[in-house]
Amino acid sequence: MFYRGEDLRLTDGGLGQEDIIPCYDESPTWLVDHAWEQAMEVGRNALAAYMKYCREEKLPHSYLLGLDILFMGKVDPSNPRHIIDIRPTLVEGPCCNSYPACPAVDALKLYRRLQVKGFDPDRVDYPSHPTMVRQRIASMMIGLFHRRGGSGMPRAAVFTRPYPESEEETAHVLMIKAFEKASMETYRITPDEKPEVRNGKLWVHGKPIDMVYRRIERIHVPVFYGEKLAAQIINETPDTMFVNPWKIDDLRSKTIEERAFRRWEAEHPDRPVSRPKTLLDSEVTPSNVAELASYGGWVMKKWNSTGGKGVFLYFNRKVTDKAVEYLYLDASGRHMIHLNEDEVRKELDALKNFNEDTAVQQLRLVDARVLGPDKRLVYDTRINALYNAEFDTWDFVSGMSRSVPCGPGVSNGNSLLTNISSGAEVSPLVLGHLRSPEGKKDLTFGPLLQAILDGRTEITF
Questions:
Q1: Which of 2, 307, 382, 413 makes a 20 to 30 Å CA pair with 252?
Q2: H or E element: which one contains 450?
Q3: What confidence tier does 421 reach under pLDDT thresholds 50, 70, 90?
Q4: Helix, strand or coil for residue 137?
Q5: For residue 65, which phi and psi values (nearest 5 degrees)?
Q6: Phi/psi at 379 (nearest 5 deg)?
Q7: What is the pLDDT of residue 12?
């Protein structure tokens, strides 16, 4: 079932200084059957829009991406006990996830944890089995190397911050082992290894590197490697291929992402990207945001809001109070602003001369599972996609969920922002088609996900 003595902890931090990442595996997220098919459709449309934008803007696209696809609905203005427009919704997508995300690394450990807990994670046919995710990434790197004219096996590296700053356990050790198992000569690269740039390639220990899996954003490279070397690494290594090229970091913006989606939909109106209604630039006016408020509220996402930074949720209490109590019992987390009617008007008035690089989106309510009379579990789903160069398509390879307990007495939760600083814990995501109908009988779904599984787009409570 699993290897005796296997380390199933999720950790980050420097070598010898790893911290345990909290993991909530008592209630795994099951994304199956019809709901999984809908989530895949959302992902495929978003990735197609991303590829179109990259090609037209002459940006080298990434080869491994994460998509946050949540199950969400909005409140009917005429009935606060009626949640409508329930669908899988992309809240952070390919443009905003520019470097390899943790699920690619953690999928196997989360799978093993489920086995230890007594669940049967193999009741589904996975798009890519958790035991094979790292191998698939390694195979992709080898394939890309050969498609660029390389022969034999590429020399690989994992590139990140110094160990006291990096996600050493999850990013370095596990991926290096996977690449070595695939017969690639593999190196870690931090400033400690004193890398160099020569002849168009990144070098380390006197060896030129062909393929790089990076765990650092471009803006942080000068901080840790120094301005001169950082400029060389980013600008003077055309013959070293990065799984996520440096230039693509320019897309880490909700406003750019929205423009990419609109460009796609102008040519493909039959394949829209399922996301919240989004306002940009001069569209952010009191009247337009008031329309969002009539359905529950709005969300402000600053240009650099990925990872939950710069995200603020504005609840119109007149519309949302009953739904919040029904779904979460309590939603009073950080960056969540609950407004009475007078406060809504004041916030709208402040938007009369709005001029910021900010996307304003419809507030959509996240699904939550019932864990007991006084506890709910808000969850999101992060799905990783791997580029298939042979067919110019994307394959879904892994996933994880972030879960936030909500309800009276929850000390570090009650938040719909499912990032770690808001009290979220990593939890397993099992995705695919059930092998048999009986596999669903003991699974727990939130009311919004259950509606989708039942073929509905609304619920009344």
A1: 413
A2: helix 447-453
A3: low
A4: helix
A5: -140, 155
A6: -145, 150
A7: 80
Residue 12: closest CA among 161, 170, 217? 170
For residue 116, is it left (φ>0), alpha (ψ between -120 and 50) or beta? alpha
CB contact burial 99-117 (16+ within 10 A = b; e otherwise): bbbbbbbbbbbbbbbbeee
Q: Is the pLDDT of residue 398 over 90?
A: no
**pLDDT tens digits, residue range 83-118?**
999 999 999 889 877 555 555 678 899 999 999 999
DSSP per-residue string spanning 302-331: ETT-GGGTTEEEEEEHHHHHHHHHHHHS--
Domain boundaries, the chain: 11-253+365-456, 254-362
pLDDT confidence of residue 319: 97
For residue 105, give the amino acid letter. Answer: V
Distance CA 404, CA 215 (A): 25
Question: Token pair for residue 150?
Answer: 């390389």
CA distance 322 to 371: 19
Spatial separation of the C-alpha atoms in residues 139 and 137, rounded to whole Å? 5
CA gap 136, 3 in Å, rounded: 21
Look at strands 297-302 and 358-362 and give their pairing.
antiparallel
